[in-house]
UniProtKB/TrEMBL annotation:
Keywords recorded for this protein, A-Z: ATP-binding, Glutamine amidotransferase, GMP biosynthesis, Ligase, Nucleotide-binding, Purine biosynthesis
GO MF assignments: GMP synthase (glutamine-hydrolyzing) activity
Subunit: Homodimer.
Pathway linked to the protein: Purine metabolism; GMP biosynthesis; GMP from XMP (L-Gln route): step 1/1
Organism of derivation: Sphingomonas mollis
Gene name, Swiss-Prot/TrEMBL: guaA
Name of protein: GMP synthase [glutamine-hydrolyzing]
Function: Catalyzes the synthesis of GMP from XMP.
């Protein structure tokens, strides 16, 4: 495996992605705890990330000595290059303004990183983003690529197998970057590149069995891809020691509950408790119009219901969660000294502490698209694997104003028509998320010879890569008119449909 030491770059996760794409397992550790991670992982190579600090500052982050003196191959990126240089006896200088954006490097010498990729005399595009720069390279190094702004764009000490670059190979703006990284992990570190999801599945199953023993595990199933994959994997490991709890608060999409229960209980034979908590949720939501109040009530009620069910099942000491890698990577913090913050999974925050249970989180090392690959590997049907994200508070945050049973029913019908049309137009997979919002606004219309005075429905569809930013999806010309006609004809209570073209930012994806 490869250990990635994080010095706080915004793009450190991309390094992990590139290494895994090369078929090699990698983990990220913040520089403060990298020595522990090193001892635990016993990696075959080290990558040192970029970061916002300056090695010239007094308390700047350093490469732990055990790592620096390990004799393992190392690749330093940006700050990583500067830290290597300074700690190995070279010199780093403050930049005047720095260098940001696209640049071209010329290849000046052969280097193991260039195998089958770059040859001497060629020029290649890279992405620079740095303030300080290396002024004097450390003993043993020589430059192998340079640019007008960066004479030491790439430096190498082939004897010690230490390489360092001023630019960022992990971003897409360095077109050959992933191949440079692949050459490092495969040629230089000699790793075979055979890390696969099949191997991960087998290893995780063994790990879950070892952790759980004969204990009981409960898993909150939402129907989303993360909890579905986690439940399947755990079931494969420990069979009926796992019980799934599916809380139905009446704020799910049309057909969702039937699909989840049918698949997990019916098809996979996994013990599943389907909690019908519609009354509890709807009664509690009566009169609540503030978005945050809705979210808080739903979050708290979900936990109450889940806890009550867990107590009924009894004897479970483990709680399974579909936590993903981006949720657990410790973020490097410079403002609060050497402390680290761990993001908590926003859907189930507080549950494990309150219930005093041990966590089983078999997806902790995976990125979202890797979870999908694992889901396919486990035979999870495509409708689950490729499902759009759906928020925990469900339809309740898609009904501005008061949430009632009747409004949920109206929204469910309209939303189902919208999604059915998206699927039959073959657009589902091109969209990150599509949904309808039922507005607390009534407008006048005419149907037949009668006057109507009914709700407005807003349709929304966005593209996104991670949900952090999003663009409105542009449907082909006749799509929205067709959906509008269907919804108004088929759903009583709606007489007008609009489309939301707001991107994020400035909007958010959900309306509340
Ligand atoms: P926003 O509305 O903040 O949403 O742009 C970004 C993404 O997060 C989803 N979302 C949630 N997911 N629990 C969830 O599991 C929540 O409370 C929640 N709120 C928003 C939203 O659907 C989008 O994919």
């Amino acid at each position: 495996s490869i250990l990635i030491v994080d010095f706080g770059s915004q793009v450190t996760q991309l390094i992990a992605r590139r290494v895994r794409e090369a078929g090699v397992y990698s983990e990220i550790a913040p520089f403060q705890s990298a020595a522990d991670a090193f001892a635990r992982m016993q990696p075959r190579g080290i990558i040192l990330s970029g970061g916002p600090a300056s090695v010239l500052d007094e308390h700047s982050p350093r490469i732990p000595d055990t790592i620096l003196n390990s004799g393992l191959p190392m690749l330093g990126i940006c700050y990583g290059q500067q830290a290597l240089t300074q700690q190995l006896g070279g010199r780093v200088e403050k930049g005047m303004g720095g260098e940001f954006g696209e640049a071209f490097v010329s290849v000046d010498a052969t280097c193991a990183l260039f195998d089958g990729l770059w040859t001497e005399g060629e020029r290649h595009q890279v992405w620079m983003s740095h303030g300080d720069h290396v002024a004097e390279i450390a003993p043993g190094f020589h430059p192998v690529a340079s640019s007008p702004g960066a004479p030491f764009a790439i430096i190498a000490d082939e004897a010690r197998r230490i390489y360092a670059m001023q630019f960022h190979p992990e971003v897409v703006h360095t077109p050959d970057g992933s191949k440079l990284i692949a050459n490092f992990v495969r040629h230089v570190c000699g790793l075979p590149g055979d890390w696969s999801m099949a191997g991960f599945r087998a290893a995780k199953i063994a790990e879950i069995r070892a952790q759980v023993g004969v204990g009981k595990v409960i898993c909150g199933l939402s129907g989303g891809v993360d909890s579905s994959v986690a439940a399947l994997l755990i079931h494969e490991a420990i069979g009926d020691q796992l019980t799934c709890v599916f809380v139905d608060g009446g704020i799910l999409r049309a057909g969702e509950a039937e699909q989840v229960v049918g698949l997990f209980r019916g098809h996979y034979n996994i013990p599943l408790v389907h909690v019908q908590a519609q009354d509890l949720f709807m009664d509690g939501l009566a009169g609540v119009t503030d978005p945050e109040a809705k979210r808080k009530f739903i979050g708290k009620t979900f936990i109450d219901v889940f806890e009550a069910e867990a107590n009924k099942i009894g004897g479970a000491e483990f709680l399974a969660q579909g936590t993903l890698y981006p949720d657990v990577i410790e973020s490097v913090s410079f403002t609060g000294g050497p402390s680290v913050t761990i993001k908590s999974h926003h859907n189930v925050g507080g549950l494990p502490e309150r219930m005093n249970m041990k966590l089983v989180e078999p997806l902790r090392e995976l990125f979202k698209d890797e979870v999908r690959v694992l889901g396919r590997e486990l035979g999870l049907p495509d409708v689950f694997v490729g499902r759009h994200p759906f928020p925990g508070p469900g339809l309740a945050i898609r009904i501005p104003g008061e949430v009632t049973r009747e409004r949920c029913d109206i929204l469910r019908k309209a939303d189902a028509i919208y999604l059915e049309e998206i699927r039959s137009a073959g657009l589902y997979d091109a969209i990150w998320q599509a949904f309808a919002v039922l507005l607390p606004v009534r407008t006048v219309g005419v149907m037949g010879d009668a006057r109507t005075y009914d709700h407005v429905l807003a349709l929304r569809a966005v593209t996104s890569t991670d949900g952090m930013t999003a663009q409105a999806f542009s449907f082909p010309g006749d799509f929205l008119p067709r959906v509008t006609t269907r919804i108004i004809n088929e759903v009583r209570g709606i007489n007008r449909v609009t489309y939301d073209y707001t991107s994020k930012p400035p909007g958010t994806i959900e309306w509340e």
